[in-house]
Amino acid sequence: MNRLEGKWVLITGATSGIGKACAELFAEYGCQLVLTGRRAERLTDLAITLEEEHGISVQTAAFDIRDQEACIQFVRGLEEPIDILVNNAGLAKGLDSIQNGEFEDWNAMIDTNVKGLLTMTRWISPMMIERNSGHIINIGSTAGHETYPGGSVYSATKYAVKAITEATKKDFHGTKVRVSMVSPGLAETEFSNVRFSGDTERADSVYKGMEPLTGKDIAEIVVFMANRPEHVNILDSIVMPVYQSSAQMVHRDE
Ligand code: NDP
Ligand code: 8X3
Hints:
Layout: E1 8-11, H1 17-28, E2 32-37, H2 40-54, E3 58-62, H3 68-76, E4 84-87, H4 103-131, E5 134-139, H5 152-171, E6 177-184, H6 191-195, H7 200-205, H8 215-226, E7 238-239
Parallel strand pairs: 1-2, 1-4, 2-3, 4-5, 5-6, 6-7
The structure holds ligand 1 and 2-hydroxyethylsulfonic acid.
């Protein structure tokens, strides 16, 4: 059953990976889309493709989600009320132990994964509360459920996403606005390339000898959550490849 057709879905970080896959899948369900990210050309290309393929309306906005004023201006400029907000934009930078960490990497992760998500939620959710309808879906991580060496700050940001998701559900208590989170394990996107600053060999080694998740695998969970009846709220969903059993337990074929 398609309960999503015609709904307005705002996806942050739609220029690649999980966000892009979410855009493609919501488009298949006949949703209207608002897509954000910093790479304007990718957003425009995706919008043209999805409009042509699905006959839907796609709006785009290129800005840095760390820029709180840009976020606020973007939300003020929205032409349609948002039914579903997918807080997806995020990244890991580096895999340094805390004693060797780079402030620049820490700031990028905290400002994007935590403050960017908070800012979007802060400015979109009042409109949902007012209409007593809406759904916020945060992309967390297995790193928000367990830690690993070199992952202290990335994990901290994803534990924060878990905390924010759970507290937001409580803030909306008594309304019909839903709050969910998906917590993926290893998914092959641009994530590892970004984490290792374009070191493709190192990025590829993350997925060596195993079949990782794809952006589409996660998009299917996001859309499943969004497509539940309005009285059903899935709070979290931990999703890993079958060869992954924890952050560091990854089976690899020879
Ligand atoms: P990608 O690198 O493929 O996509 C990340 C997206 O976030 C891009 O669209 C990027 O757009 C956007 N983004 C990053 N920084 C900013 C910024 N400052 N302002 C605006 N947009 C930004 O990685 P994934 O698709 O894998 O990551 C999506 C989410 O999934 C992240 O929150 C990540 O933490 C999470 N995740 C990923 C996992 C994985 O293994 N891949 C596992 C668990 C969670 P642009 O560069 O154009 O700005
Ligand atoms: C991404 C998964 O294990 O690389 O959130 O941190 S992991």
